[in-house]
Write a structure and sequence with these properties.
The complex is a heterodimer of chains A (431) and B (421). With 431 residues, chain A is an alpha/beta fold. Chain A is built from 13 helices and 16 strands. In chain A, α3 packs across α6, α7 crosses α13 and α10 crosses α11. The C terminus of chain A is likely disordered. About 7% of the residues of chain B have low confidence. The chains are: A alpha/beta (431), B alpha/beta (421).
């Protein structure tokens, strides 16, 4: 029998607040975390704004030894993990040992460490490279630092699934519990803004100059953001045993790959629609059961149009409320869908749909019920989290109010892809 | 893991292209006067960058790597070496498994086949290239068509695009252990019916940045060599493989992984025999076998003394007089791809010469057919001769354990058995 998996705690490092309460208050108020870039000189690039996290002070969350061995990305992940465990009211003695795993997503991991190593090498030669900094680069380190901080000794894994990394991590973390390989998984994602990524997005002509306006007719593109979102997932038996309190249940997730273009989504939204349908079906539900969609909503022309197509493909004529937190946070890349998953948990707990700020002019190409500028209250039994990433990665996750989802053993598993244009699948798989 | 069968391999190693070359390469290094593929600079030039600045550096590159026989000559300019290595390995595995022939699907469908790739450091080649432009010229001049390469899942994304693999696409990172973890992820994805077949393995490309890092950390003095390449295995459930009549190379039956923090709070890099011991015990339990049933251990021993000692200690604690094989002594430290070469070596050990799994049939489409010899026409099944570092190798082992020990207290292990189970 597959165990149910619950979210019992969340931790946040974001441009709109640290910790669950500050973050959720800001989401409800529709506060913007966008400000002038302070960590490097972006002026020559013709773009100056991003959702940098400015109030995060590592010394308030990490020991001196921890600070000496990790970069800012891991530091944000460790801080968010500690907040999440506090939020779940789990004792450190409970998470210590091989039954606790850490699975985190990211796009570039310690990009600032790599940036410093490269800067020293390119401007000063090989001997200018700081030896002690070399082992601190590598995305591998994110879950390792978190595992050390909480005493976890099970699986440690990084999923660099670009902007879908949070949903990948949460989905794989829930699988680990359902497969009986862990009782507790600390999961989510972290990302920092670094000059190279910033320049790259400018050169791809994907970055807006002033505002990120998802689904708006006059949207100009994305703004970058950063942060860490960490969730504590537990098996139902573990939550009961320690008398914990579930905030939300983790439902099924759907994955697909566009195999279309390295940076642009498939405008037909074939793969992303499949991922969304599959996420809902793998939760034992149908599209009619979904109450709200936390959008990928980057504010680029291509993404928002493809995501709108996906919504229409899956929900037909039903106008389901949808909103993009990227209007407030910017695009936190690898951390985006983890922070948005925490937004989903907030919606489930409060019935509040966070707004899409800066939404002014509806776009006929994005004919959606966007939660414009002001938070809205509504039914929130089942919430879906979209992420459509670089590399054609589509990952959609479902979250539900505890007690709403049917028992996981009733969730249907294998089903053929709805639009295979190759020869028929040679098997429907096995369960 | 639920049992997974290996139905094809695509391997690009410092011994050349094809599982056959890899298998005979790690075998042919036996005997006096034979060399491993590792080259010491500056006497030997690296093909990818100027090695003369790093006296004492040891590197092993995929020799004279030319992807055009496999990929055609269009669309390659915007790709880096890492992506090209992965694309060729994926295409070879698709062909070897009989999933595709001459670029067309024969045993699979695009929506039911996907990719799970381990990579530890991303495209340092592309990142350095763009950083040079940004730092020495102007960030406004960085090439937007090269920027996507700097993203960690770029190579895997391109693999899906080039071979139309739409089921799932996953990149995993767990240092040297990632490719074994990729198999565990693939097992879950196949069990859940998210794909019928997955191309699973790892890829890592040579770069000056890696050599610089190893050099600055004194790893070459220790005896390490940096390798590169890509190894992809086609994995399916036994039922799926049987249903389409695919030849089975070997079966994966168990997986374990563990993490141990160092004793010192200030330490970061550390070799943990405890973590590997736990991973081995978990893998054996997962496979439902006892230690005495393991005929050989394909280790990640690479020439880094502290790590080699720790790995050997964990293996010798788990087995009585084990036969320990170390392919990395011949091809160098391949990092995120390491476990995938370990699996390829295990497959070579268990496969009779001339049997399936030689990874030789290219599935090239576009212009140009792969030269038969470069595709790995060399007979496989050779034992990894000089790479045996402990014990002696019985002819055609039936059960092989593959181990990986990471640099930070992470470790993974995988049990593979000959034939179909």
């Amino acid at each position: 029998l597959l165990p149910r998996v619950f979210v019992t705690g969340v931790g946040v490092v974001s441009s709109i607040g640290l910790g669950r309460q500050a973050f959720c208050r800001a989401l409800e108020e529709g506060r913007s975390g966008i400000s002038p870039v302070g960590s490097f000189d972006a002026s020559a690039l013709g773009r100056r704004l991003a959702g940098e996290v400015k109030e995060f002070e590592p010394s308030e969350h990490l020991t001196r030894a921890e600070r000496s061995r990790m970069g800012r990305c891991s530091a944000m992940a460790v801080a968010a993990a500690r907040m999440a465990l506090d939020d779940a009211e789990i004792d450190a003695a409970v998470t210590a040992g091989p039954r606790t795993a850490v699975i985190l997503g990211t796009t570039m991991g310690e990009a600032q460490i790599l940036g410093e190593l490269e800067h020293d090498w390119i401007t000063g030669g090989p001997l200018a490279v700081k030896r002690a900094l070399i082992p601190q680069y590598g995305s591998t380190l994110l879950p390792i630092h978190v595992a050390r901080a909480i005493g976890a000794q099970g699986t440690v894994l990084t999923l660099p699934a670009a902007c879908a990394a949070g949903n990948y991590a949460i989905g794989f973390a829930a699988d680990l519990i359902r497969a009986g390989r862990a009782d507790v998984v600390v999961t989510g994602a972290a990302e920092v803004i670094q000059q190279l990524q910033f320049s790259g997005f400018v050169r791809l002509a994907a970055m807006a100059s002033e505002r990120c306006q998802p689904f708006d007719l006059n949207r100009q593109g994305l703004l970058l953001g950063e942060g860490a979102g960490v969730l504590v997932l537990e098996s139902e038996a573990h939550v009961v045993r320690r008398n914990g309190q579930p905030r939300a249940e983790v439902g099924g997730y759907g994955l697909s790959c566009d195999a279309y273009h390295i940076t642009r989504p498939n405008p037909e939204a074939t793969g992303s629609s499949f991922a969304m349908r599959d996420a809902i079906a793998r939760s034992g539900l149908g599209p009619a059961d979904v109450d709200f969609v936390n959008a990928h909503g980057t504010g680029t022309r291509h993404n928002d149009a493809a995501e709108s197509k996906m919504m229409h493909d899956v929900f037909g004529g039903r106008r389901l409320p949808i909103s993009s937190m990227k209007s407030m946070l910017g695009h936190c890349m690898g951390a985006a869908s983890a922070l948005e998953a925490i937004g989903c948990v907030f919606t489930i707990e409060t019935g509040i749909y966070p707004p899409t700020i800066g939404y002014e002019t509806p776009d006929p190409e994005c004919d959606l019920d966007v939660v414009a500028n002001v938070a809205r209250r509504g039914k929130a039994d089942v919430v879906v989290n979209n992420s459509l990433a670089f590399g054609g990665y589509n990952a959609v996750a479902t979250f539900a109010r505890p007690g709403v989802l049917p028992s996981p053993h009733a969730w249907s598993y294998p089903r053929p892809h709805p639009r295979a244009d190759g020869p028929p699948a040679f098997s429907s798989g096995s369960s | 893991v639920t049992p997974l069968v290996v139905t094809g391999l695509g391997v690009l190693s410092p011994f050349g292209i094809g599982q056959g070359r890899f298998a005979s390469g790690i075998g042919s290094t036996a005997g006096p006067g034979r060399e491993s593929a590792c080259r010491v600079g500056p006497g030997h030039l690296a093909e990818t960058f100027d090695l003369s600045k790093y006296p004492g550096a040891r590197v092993a590159e995929v020799p004279s790597f030319d992807p055009t026989p496999y990929l055609g000559d269009k669309g390659l300019r915007s790709l880096d070496r890492l992506t090209k290595l992965l694309l060729v390995a994926t295409r070879l595995a698709l062909g070897d498994a009989g999933l595709k022939r001459d670029g067309a699907w024969v045993g699979g469908a695009p929506d039911r086949v996907g990719v799970v790739v381990s990579n530890a450091y991303g495209s340092l080649e592309a990142i350095t290239e763009l950083d040079r432009v940004a730092l020495l010229e102007d960030a406004r001049y960085i090439n937007p068509s090269r920027f996507p390469l700097t993203v960690s899942n770029s190579a895997a994304g391109y693999a899906s695009i080039w071979d139309d693999l739409r089921a799932v696409n996953v990149t995993v990172t767990d240092g040297n252990c990632g490719a074994l973890d990729a198999v565990a992820c693939a097992g879950a994805l196949i069990e859940q019916g998210r794909a019928d077949a997955l191309l699973v393995g790892g890829a890592e490309a040579m770069s000056e940045a890696l050599v610089l890092a190893f050099d600055r950390l004194g790893a070459f003095g220790d005896g390490a060599c940096i390798g590169e390449g890509a190894a992809m295995l086609a994995l399916e459930s036994p039922w799926t493989a049987r249903a389409r009549g695919a030849a089975v190379v070997c079966t994966i039956t168990g997986y374990g992984t563990a993490f141990e923090a160092p004793d010192r709070e200030t330490a970061l890099v550390h070799a943990s025999p405890r973590a590997l011991a736990r991973a081995i015990a978990e893998a054996l339990a997962d496979a439902g076998i006892g230690a005495h049933e393991v005929d050989a251990v394909v280790s990640g021993i690479s020439g880094l003394r502290a790590f080699d000692r720790a790995e050997l200690a964990a293996i010798e604690a788990a087995f009585v007089n084990p036969c320990v094989v170390a392919p990395k002594l011949a091809i160098g430290e391949t990092l995120g791809a390491g476990g995938a070469f370990g699996m390829s070596a295990a497959a070579a050990l268990m496969t009779p010469a001339g049997g399936p799994g030689q990874g030789g049939r290219p599935a090239a489409h576009g212009s140009g057919a792969a030269p038969a010899e470069a595709a790995g026409g060399v007979a496989g099944g050779a034992g990894p001769g000089r790479c045996v570092v402990r014990g002696s190798l019985r002819t055609q082992p039936r059960t092989v354990l593959v181990t990986s020990l990471g640099y930070y207290g992470n470790a993974s292990a995988l049990v593979m058995c000959a034939g179909a189970r």
